[in-house]
Amino acid sequence: MVTETAMQARRKAAMTVLAHSDAAGIAECLGAIAVPAHEHLREPENGLVMVRGRIGGDGAPFNLGEATVSRAAVRLATGEVGFGYTLGRDLEKARMIALCDAMVQSHELADAVEANVLAPLRSSMLASRERQAAQAAATRVDFYTMVRGGG
Amino acid sequence: MYVAVKGGERAIENAHRLLAHERRGDRDVAEISLAQISGQLSLGVDRVMTEGSLYDRELAALAIKQARGDLIEAIFLVRAFRATLPRFGATEPVDTGTMQVRRRISSTFKDIPGGQVLGPTFDYTHRLLDPQLAEGSAPEAPVAAEPLAAMPRVTDILGRDGLIEASPQTDDGAPVGDLTREPLSFPADRDLRLQNLARADEGFLLALGYSTQRGYGRSHPFAGEIRFGEVEVEFFAEDAGFTVPLGAIAMTECQMVNQFKGSATEAPCFTRGYGLAFGQSERKTMSMALVDRSLRARELSEEIKAPAQDEEFVMSHSDNVQATGFVEHLKLPHYVDFQSELGLLRKLRAEFFEAAASAEPLQEAAE
């Protein structure tokens, strides 16, 4: 039996991967598994969140500006309720995240979602992060000191 | 007297059709796509997102296309759009210390932990026009084998030795000022000032920041650190009952380190100015940090004598949507106002000439 904290951590980890992936990628992965019967608890909708920063990077919060978001909620026929939140206005992406979140909580479906959806999306997310980090690393300055005089 | 005037509908409709026609440009040239604007005019998109105060690359690209590249018009369009969507709430404050860094430099320490990472920058380019770009190109990105190390903020390093003032703190859940919800009033707290500066016109802040460097409210700044990259954003979702990840937002942060303050009871330490913006917005965040610092004059008991230290002056004139609205409204019909001015002027002139005419004979007599 998974504790509630562990389940929440697992759901957040899955949501992170999904939020970082594009809708086409998620749809392609979902195509590989049998999607269970489900209903919309909250029709996918667009809205805004106010993005906050911190004064000095680590101080009191302030309002930086808004960002578009999409959200949705679904319920599987077996009862699991999933929530989908993502930056941007892609309603279908929010719906698929909610569906995956519900499946992650299902004992029967969690493994299939991990193997067919989350694992491939996670590795492509990490690969793109690594590629970007390697590009940035190529611009790191190596200082050297000019030897003066000498003899 | 108010006189309603009607007419001009057909002229207006045709003007808009002509605008659409001109916007499309030469039909023999391919139409520009949003992906092209977003990917290849990305710093313009970043500016529209920052000053439009809405993070959405595709919408900002659409606004730039619709505005024919007029960025202030595009910012106006984005601001108007945001009013059409409901707000779900506020995110957790982002942690720029965990940024996936694409650029990070410090002008105060050569050997900062994590190193100086130049990233995609115009710095050190020769500013010579490149004719090859006119031909089209497919450059390849450089790649290093060694990964990047962790990058603590420079201000955190200085803070450990007490050499720099700590950032102001509030209790969790304390209200955060929001100028999109309440009208501005003065004096304004730093959270409201930073929100105002984050949305402010880059050119206005650049000029004000420059003015502090030239002596109008001098603050002896160093660019302690500038970093640009992706920051994770999280949001407490009431329906889910926990904080959910939303994805990552590209941001630029500037930590300005300024001359010290101290008192009989406090050891002297460096003071700070802060800048934060969407996308790669380096000039904006540097200017913002300079002006944030100069606007702290009251708090730091500095004499307020320069425009950049006057929060009412700065905050009331920083918004380019408000500014352009008021300046550009001058071209809308003011026929009735002008007619009454004209009538008054005619009357004054008539009185002037009458007085002059009646004074003339007396003058002659005096001679």
TrEMBL record, chain A:
Which InterPro entries does its entry note? Phosphonate_metab_PhnG
GO MF annotation terms: lyase activity
- Annotated keywords: Lyase
| Family annotation (Pfam families) | PhnG
An example GO biological process term is: organic phosphonate metabolic process
The UniProt entry, under NCBIfam families, shows: PhnG_redo
Indicate what this protein is called per its UniProt record. Phosphonate C-P lyase system protein PhnG
This chain is encoded by the gene named phnG
Automatic annotation (TrEMBL), chain B:
Q: Which InterPro entries match?
A: PhnI
The UniProt GO MF terms for this protein read: lyase activity
Q: Which UniProt keywords apply?
A: Lyase
Q: Which GO terms describe its biological process?
A: organic phosphonate metabolic process
Protein name (Swiss-Prot/TrEMBL):
Carbon-phosphorus lyase complex subunit PhnI
